Structures are given as structure tokens and as C-alpha cells.
């Protein structure tokens, strides 16, 4: 199992390196503080409900990991963006530029015997004018697979064919 986690981290670093070849200079700049207008979540997917625990503001900041620029995001209680806490985790954030925004993507696999847990998380941050939409889903499954077949690549291959276990969406306005 430890080897799979190390493999997943190595793949993430390689992905970050490839994204670094693209660069951030001509891409959408998400940097800023945004007032949250709508925040919903669902576990499992398909039943989005208002998220009563969502922060009133979201702050996106340009950061650097191994020489590659990306956007991290924090939930904030104030519009100055001073009282904030991370809501994207250690390897969360947006690493890949896409049309009108950025993509954050990760995959994982862990096993115990033939019990294999596979998953992917895909989150986009789309900015049009001052309107930001952060939309993310997690797909995962517990399957019977031999240890050598229980890999992040297998999770990516199965992708959205796995059950959607979590969905979150935030609509916000840049201040």
C-alpha cells in the first residue's frame, strides 16, 4: 500500500512538471478574494443541498510547487482574506489551465489483500468576468483486484464509470 501512495505522489509530481511546461503567463488568473453566493454539496452525488458549513469567502492564491505555478484556495470568514483556512488539502488546488479557468485532478488506489479502493477527484475553477464557479466531484469504488492491478492508473481508467461519492459546487463573485 505504501508503494501505491508513493507512486501516486510521483505521478502527481510528474503531472505538475508537465503542466509547468505550459506555464501560467497567458492563462486565466484566478488570484483574488470572492464572496460566496451559493455553496452546495452532496454525499453521494445527485442530491445537492445547501452547504451550511461553507465559508463566506474564498481566496485563491498563486503558489509554486517544485517550480510549477498553480492556484491554491482557502475558505475565509472575512472579505479582507485575513481569517482563512485551507480547504484544498496538501495536494489540492488547480494545476492545469483549461478554457476559462483551471483544473485540479488526482487519483488514488490502496489495497488490503484483494480489497482495492480506487478513486479520482476532479475539480474545476471557471472564471467568467467576475463570476467564479468551483465544481468538483469524487468518484470511487471498492473492488476485488490483485495488488499489482490496484493502481492509480486503474482508477483513472475507470474514471467517471465508478460511483460518484461526493459533489461540491461554489458560485462566487470576485471582490
Explain the overall architecture.
The chain is an alpha+beta fold and 175 residues long. It has one domain (2-27, 36-51, 94-174). The protein has helices at residues 2-22, 152-158, and strands spanning 32-42, 49-50, 57-65, 68-76, 84-86, 96-98, 101-112, 115-128, 131-144, 164-174. Strands 1, 2, 3, 4, 5, 6, 7, 8, 9 and 10 form a ten-stranded antiparallel sheet that branches. A hairpin with a 6-residue loop joins β1 and β2. The longest helix has 21 residues, at 2-22. The radius of gyration is 17 Å and the shape is globular. It starts with a helix and ends with a strand.
- Find the structural class using helix and strand composition: alpha+beta
Tell me the radius of gyration: 17 Å
Mean pLDDT equals 85
Anisotropy-based shape: globular
| Helical run tally | 2
Number of domains: 1
Largest sheet at a glance? 10 strands, antiparallel
Overall helicity: 10-25%
The percent range for strand residues is over 45%
The SSE order reads: HEEEEEEEEEHE
Q: What is the end-to-end distance?
A: 44 Å
Number of strands: 10
The residue ranges in which pLDDT falls below 50 over 5 or more consecutive positions are: 1-25
Features of the shown structure:
single chain, about 180 residues, alpha+beta, 10-stranded antiparallel β-sheet, about 15% helix, about 50% strand, globular
Secondary structure blueprint with pairings:
Elements: H1 2-22, E1 32-42, E2 49-50, E3 57-65, E4 68-76, E5 84-86, E6 96-98, E7 101-112, E8 115-128, E9 131-144, H2 152-158, E10 164-174
Antiparallel strand pairs: 1-2, 1-3, 1-10, 3-4, 4-5, 6-7, 7-8, 8-9, 9-10
Amino acid at each position: 500500500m505504501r508503494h501505491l501512495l508513493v507512486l501516486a505522489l510521483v505521478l502527481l509530481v510528474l503531472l505538475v512538471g508537465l503542466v509547468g511546461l505550459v506555464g501560467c503567463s497567458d492563462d486565466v488568473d484566478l488570484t483574488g478574494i470572492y464572496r460566496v453566493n451559493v455553496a452546495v454539496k452532496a454525499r453521494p452525488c445527485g442530491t445537492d443541498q445547501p452547504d451550511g458549513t461553507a465559508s463566506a469567502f474564498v481566496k485563491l492564491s498563486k503558489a509554486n510547487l517544485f517550480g510549477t505555478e498553480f492556484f491554491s484556495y482557502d475558505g475565509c470568514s472575512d472579505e479582507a482574506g485575513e481569517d482563512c483556512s485551507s480547504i484544498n488539502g496538501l495536494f489540492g488546488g488547480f494545476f492545469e489551465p483549461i478554457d476559462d479557468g483551471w483544473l485540479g485532478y488526482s487519483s488514488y488506489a490502496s489495497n488490503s489483500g484483494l480489497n482495492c479502493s480506487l478513486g479520482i477527484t476532479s475539480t474545476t475553477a471557471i472564471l467568467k468576468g467576475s463570476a467564479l464557479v468551483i465544481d468538483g466531484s469524487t468518484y470511487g469504488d471498492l473492488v476485488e483486484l490483485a495488488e499489482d492491478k490496484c493502481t492509480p492508473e486503474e482508477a483513472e481508467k475507470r474514471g467517471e464509470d465508478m460511483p460518484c461519492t461526493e459533489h461540491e459546487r461554489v458560485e462566487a463573485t470576485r471582490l
